[in-house]
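Internal ticket #5521
Category: modeling
Description: The requester needs a full-assembly model to guide mutagenesis choices. All entity lines are attached below as received. Residue total reported by intake: 700.
Assigned to: D.W.
Attached entities:
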Amino acid sequence: MSADPARSCVADFRKYANTVMVSAAISHLFETHVQLGRFIGVEHKLVALRPDDILTPDITTVYDNDSKGLLFELKYSLPDDVRSVKDELMKLAKYSGAKSGWGTKGVVQTVDFVLVCHIDDVKRAVDAVEQIFAETQNPFFDPTSFSIWFWATTVAREDETKEEMRLQNAYGATRNAPLQQMIKEPGGILVAEEVLTMLRFLYAFIRQKPPVQYTIVLLIQNIFSALPPPLRAGRQYYEVNLDLVYQKTNILFPPWWENDIQTIQVKRGWIKEALDTLARLKLVEEISGKPDSYSVPIPTLITRKPLPLTICKRLVAMQRKMRRPLGRLPVIRGVPKRRPPGVKQITEFLGNRQ
Amino acid sequence: MVYDKLYTARTKRPLLKSLILLSDESPEDLHRLVALRKQLKKSYELKVDSLQDNMFLVQIQKEVWGKPVSGHVIIDQGTRGCWIAYTDESGYFVKRVLEPFFNGLYPDVARVYFNYLQIQKFLETIREAYQGSSVVTYVAYKRQPREGKEQPKGTRLLWELGAEENLRKDARQYRIWIDSLTFQVKDQTGMTLLEASLTGRGIARLRFGAFSDFYHNVIQLYIGLATRWKTFYSERERRIEEGKVKLRPYLLQYPFDLEKTQIEELIANLTGSYSHSILFGGNPYFVANLTDNQDGSSFYLTILGKKVTITPMLRSTPYALWRIASRVQRVVGDGEILDASRGLQA
């Protein structure tokens, strides 16, 4: 992990953006390779044992004539210690109970699972899952049906400058034989060029909550800048409320989210967190007496530096300020080199004690 | 017409320049548009008189190196969404006063940019218009070896029959930037009918020939070309149609792989006009989100191999999309512009 908190904040911003790309890559892989099975959907709703027990993995697919399920979960970041990673992975075991909602005619007999994470986190993830399986023998984490993938960039050949992005296997396997064959190839699965250049922009979010700097940059660059009328003649202020910003941000989320009250609340929560943080950073102003209303200057932030870096530096400065105790900092005075006049020598005190 | 008489006699005089601009505003509102911009308001003095038939006479003055430079321009707003600014003032006035003035009016008034492929196609249209006559071309352009890291030096001139064929050959070996294309139309007896030139920044210049010919066979065609490309850049915003996200990206295709040095140069060039966040700053796969500071349009820009792809977001005006294509080409070199939107939905 980077020692500079602003740099690691920018790294998280990029990790999230590129995890969104990986989501597009896996969806595209199933859409273009029919032999791998059938792509059901992104954040498709599955039902566990109880009908109100809804599961929404990042990507849902079925294979072997719709008789087997394969789920993908994407994590842009995992905790720094293996113990917390284990806690995080244990939560995934709920997907073993995905019984219905697959949209297939017959019954889905088995469910395999792939966790996709960043290369920085893959070692901890593998260590964690190995420990879980050794300790619990939970069949969900069995390496014959549970696997961990990561994504990495490589240069195709030394004499070429063109970069490639590949999905690679780090742990376990899936019983989807054609897919397993592809991921086991040297170098793993090549991400299609159209994913890297265009399809990655179909959506801006995955189901995992984005870091706040990601939502802030997205709002400044793509939502606030599009507020009518066009900007000119210096900075102008617009009064917006959470509903309006949420409505405009909607186009960046997968459209099927809209039908679910719970996910609407989640999305609104992310936007509200970003707006409130912007207010704390003094980039927008909360309007007093009007809850969830903000005065947004357009342009919101003018800088020649990359926007995520500027936002991250401000976030780090704000956090440092919040951690500092209130009031005047205690001043540590140095020992005077000369004894001030009228102050007795220490030897006199010692003499009295004796 | 007075210009016919002036430009059919061989005398030394400034060329007649026609600047093609895109705008939905009226030249009558120039005072208001200037008042909205501090820099223009401070530097320029303006007088606008309405003539007949959607024509406006504009007197513009600006101090250049402490000396006032002024001149007259006639703006023709006859074609919807287009302004044509005519002037027979000096090239110095056009370069130092007129072009910076219109550049400053962005995004209310937008310049156009044509690369060598677009100009080449345009020349074919002119050849069709002058069937039976011979068209001689001279091309001025800058070229740089593909691996070159410095800015190109000097302008290369191809001054011969069929010069654009040599340009085409150079385009396969070098990064090139078109400067201007001059052409001479001669009838079967060898008499010159028209001598004119076109620049990549949308300026058509008449050196010799009847203005009416120049207007019908060059200006009108040039407007047609500008309008077609404006349509190409229009309605490319991200949308949701019938519950599906629709993207309408376009791309700049090069005959060579783009390198890290060119990407760095591009980002350094764009930072003044665009807010940017880099999503992937690899070597050389590159992804960034750009927001046009003046216009509010935003888009994703990716560079991979031989392609630069621009994917518009929620607000993306044709002017902003044309401008970013032009900015990329000014740094990387002229490329082929293609639509990349087929089947992009989810």
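Resolution: model delivered.
Comment from assignee: Residues 18-201 of chain A form a domain with the Trna Endonuclease; Chain: A, domain 1 fold (CATH 3.40.1350).
Ticket closed.
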